[in-house]
Write a structure and sequence with these properties.
mainly alpha; 8 helices; 0% strand; globular
């Protein structure tokens, strides 16, 4: 059985409609840990999968607030500082969404707080622009000094 067959019948939604990469990214976005694990076990390179705008599976999990999947992907080698086509990292995504817990998790796992997106904004600056001052303060304060 190949990775593309794993999700047949899971929720009845996936079937053969999507590619393995599409099935994987959809499972990540939906927060479905078991299919994510099974697909990644079948093809470890899926941890590098991106969508049409260059968002990684980590970006997608962060944007949807799926902490368990974020932790799993990081443990499987997801690049914490990978950038999408807008130059945004998963930390930028957490800052945009106002997810303090996710932002601090990413920083603890090695997210570079100094990286700028294509508009020259760091994740902390994005948080301020989005009126998530507490997130910006938490990111800035996590420097420890």
């Amino acid at each position: 059985m190949g990775a593309g067959d794993i999700l047949k019948g899971v929720g009845g939604f996936f079937g053969n409609v999507f590619s393995t990469r599409g099935q994987f990214l959809t499972a990540v976005q939906r927060g479905e840990l078991a299919p994510v694990q099974k697909l990644l076990e079948a093809d470890a390179k899926l941890v590098e999968a991106t969508d049409a705008v260059g968002r990684t599976c980590l970006h997608l999990a962060v944007l949807q607030g799926h902490k368990e999947i974020v932790e799993y992907l990081l443990n499987k080698g997801a690049a914490v500082n990978a950038k999408d086509t807008n130059g945004r990292t998963a930390l930028h995504a957490a800052a945009m969404k106002g997810n303090k817990e996710m932002a601090l998790l990413l920083v603890a796992k090695g997210a570079d707080k100094t990286l700028q997106d294509n508009d020259k904004y760091t994740a902390s600056q994005v948080a301020y622009v989005q009126k998530h001052e507490d997130i910006a303060d938490a990111i800035d304060g996590s420097y420890g000094g």
